[in-house]
Amino acid sequence: MSVNPLLFQPINFRSVTARNRVVVSPMCQYSATDGLGDDWHLQHLGAKAMGGAGIVFTEATHVSAPGRITAGCLGLWSQAQQDFLARIAAMITRGGAVPGLQIAHAGRKASTDLPWKGGKPVSPEAGGWVPMGPSAIPFGPGYTTPTALSAEQIAGIAGEFAATARRARQAGFKIIEVHGAHGYLIHSFLSPVSNHRNDAYGGDLAGRARLLMEVIDAVRGEWPADLPLFVRLSCTDWVQGGLTPDDAVQVSRWLAGRGDVDLIDCSSGGGSPDQHIPSLHPGYQVPFAERIRREAGIATGAVGMIREADHAAEIIANGRADLVFLARALLADPAWPIRAAKTLGASVEWPEQYRRGALAG
Ligand SMILES: Cc1cc2nc3c(=O)[nH]c(=O)nc-3n(C[C@H](O)[C@H](O)[C@H](O)COP(=O)(O)O)c2cc1C
């Protein structure tokens, strides 16, 4: 009897089982209105589930209007948004995948234009809003100087994450991923590049990680103990004097030690326009996932330029990560998992409606 490669074997996180270890990485579509999605999102995410992925994450879904990256970003702070996202969760489930919601606050990178309109910062005078951050330091030239958050405002934002987690549960999502990467609010607190505070939320790594820990506490307060919680980290700033891979290992150890986070999704960068990535190549971020898995003793996800079936299978088979997250390859081909399974001589469970397509090969 042939055995599926580990990539195409099921995996459990708490009470949740994914049919395989291919994950649709969160991908902003910049197509929402007042944080509310539409048919585009339904089709986009439904197709990914029907394409065979094990877990399908929504794009960064924001906890408040000022926490959005752009005016076209998804949000989950209202009943209408919750009702719409419940349809998304149901559609993903119907396609055979586990529905996951990435929850986010854009911090000092909020209020930018849609990428296809240039992606530039939009000032309050031009119809944008003032972003928020750990310190009054703009992300880069042309960005509005953020409001440095007070301790009370920080507590308020943790409360917004909790409220979003509650709505996510009611909408039927089975995994939450807290977005702690790419220069957005949580990463901006973690990084010494953007966090110059000298109160309890700044200073050493423990201080800079306090917001993340408080968000995890707040989310776990609303998120059932039998459902998994993931955290996406930028595992380096790729900047001299910035957050380092050693820091990411330490933060992951703290998260692992708490016992309430199930996986670290290992991304990098996004915190500074001065970042320099020495070599962009397939799997360039995999070493972060491998190291955190080994040294922090927690499951990891590998992401970044993973396109080939053999490569994805190798990462999982050799214990470099527990899940592979794919983004652009799945935009190009939502049925990537089905094709990869075929390449690897594996099978993937498909919705009944699609079975005859599977048989036809
Ligand atoms: C269109 C697009 C939108 C993205 N939006 C998000 C997002 O909402 N949240 C996030 O954490 N990463 C986001 N990313 C990053 C991806 O999740 C992924 O980490 C990155 O593209 C590298 O993976 P890839 O080489 O497979 O594309 C986005 C990437 C793309 C291409």
Structural write-up:
This protein is an alpha/beta fold and 361 residues long. The protein has one domain (6-352): TIM Barrel. 35% of the residues lie in helices and 15% in strands. The protein has helices at residues 39-50, 79-94, 151-171, 185-190, 205-208, 210-222, 245-258, 286-296, 309-317, 328-332, 336-343, 355-360; strands at residues 11-13, 16-18, 22-24, 55-62, 98-104, 132-133, 147-148, 175-180, 229-234, 263-267, 299-303, 323-326. The strands form three sheets. An eight-stranded parallel β-barrel has the order 3-4-5-8-9-10-11-12, surrounded by seven helices. A two-stranded antiparallel sheet has the order 1-2. Strands 6-7 form a two-stranded parallel ribbon. Helix 1 runs parallel beside helix 2 (79-94), helix 3 runs parallel beside helix 6 and helix 7 crosses helix 8. The longest helix has 21 residues, at 151-171. The chain is globular and about 60 Å long. Bound molecules: flavin mononucleotide (FMN). Flavin mononucleotide binds next to strand 4 and helix 10.
